[in-house]
């Protein structure tokens, strides 16, 4: 689980955390009579998910729009904090970039709403916009920044942690006048783009684009790590800078930071600015990647000092400081902390115990201390956190299965919560068929409200769709000797998708199945991840975006993987909104 979502989780969200594998649960008991298995007629194939309106994309809500970091003594509350890497991180206290006459989002990017970034990058954009406006009376042209709390976006593998920004190129129409496109436009190595509909030749406005680079490098205070741009456009920019006798220090800086990325598209349609972690970011768990890290030694020393201070904060008389220190150790991924965090599982304050229970699994502290604390814990919030934490540890499976039958019921401000419901939610996406028999057995003696919890978990685990306990018992009596892949295939078929087996021959039907019910869509995407060897966050996106991503991924690998030809109606050759994967 990404740490962004760990910070944002409530007890209920934590109850849906992923579990892992091994050991067997018992079959449905003999005293539960198995009715005749229900016969289901296959449904007609479902259509592809309806695309969003052509120029509008609404970011999916995933419960972490405004993640917060617990502050330590003397830390500033009103500054952004970048956590993790640019591809796996998130952003606390993000700031919105607000357009004006000097700072303009292109039309498509305005509608996406990806206008949030770090305090530093927002200020850098504002200063650069003033610089460009003063010299050309032209606005800074902006594309994607990030989501409100950072995290994954469909349009890029980065932009997660507030350290990336896309700027559009300035360009000239065939008439020679300034022209602003709706979205990014790809230029060739000579700085030209031909409009296929008119044949008009548009040019890369090298003067204005150099001013953008000059403005960025004048104000970046050594924080710009890279500006991705294609080699051909880089050459045009540096030649122009030399011709106008730009400041040598700026030219030298530009020659260092302007790079065409490897292993990604060349960035011939926009500038992609990436900045280093700030001091505050490093102390919040920010991670830098890449070979050139000039602040590496300083950052390591700063981290070492912070870890020493955190050991002191763990004994603070203020329980909120103790809890915040535990959280920070997780953000810093300090696995050695398990050697001294154990005592806080039994802290006098329940909030500290909750924080420690969450931290324990992330730091791979082992399941025995969690089980021992669960046996003596009385606070309902802590108990549910401990159960959720155990769901991520394969060796804890016997404990979880026993809780299905002997878990406690808690009266909370949110109504009654039963521990077996929490277990069901926690193991639902574990992909572990060993939980199925236990869930069905307990489901058969549940009241209606409880049945719904178990039916949902079983739908994700088995890819089947039944409502009553009797139907589930009947199905399991017939299917318990099958593999989970066989369950998945039959579930896809019942939902109207012609998936005979989980393999490359079924890739296109699995792509279609993303449009199905939530469990069917989830299992289709997990199957595609398994086949591709790629763990991508498509489960967090809309079904349309997930479908488009996976169709495009496999369409590009038809020859490499020996796939059947993609059905014409599934092809992504016509594009969605023309985007790059690396930007």
Automatic annotation (TrEMBL):
Pfam families: Peptidase_M74
Spans annotated as Disordered: 23-48
Cellular component GO terms held in the UniProt record: outer membrane-bounded periplasmic space
UniProt-listed InterPro entries: ARM-like (IPR011989), ARM-type_fold (IPR016024), Peptidase_M74 (IPR005073), Zn_M74/Hedgehog-like (IPR009045)
Keywords assigned by UniProt, alphabetized: Hydrolase, Metal-binding, Metalloprotease, Periplasm, Protease, Signal, Zinc
GO biological process: proteolysis
Stretch forming the signal peptide: 1-19
GO molecular function: metal ion binding; metallopeptidase activity; serine-type endopeptidase activity
This protein's name: HEAT repeat domain-containing protein
Origin species: Microvenator marinus
Taxonomy of the source species: Bacteria, Deltaproteobacteria, Bradymonadales, Microvenatoraceae, Microvenator
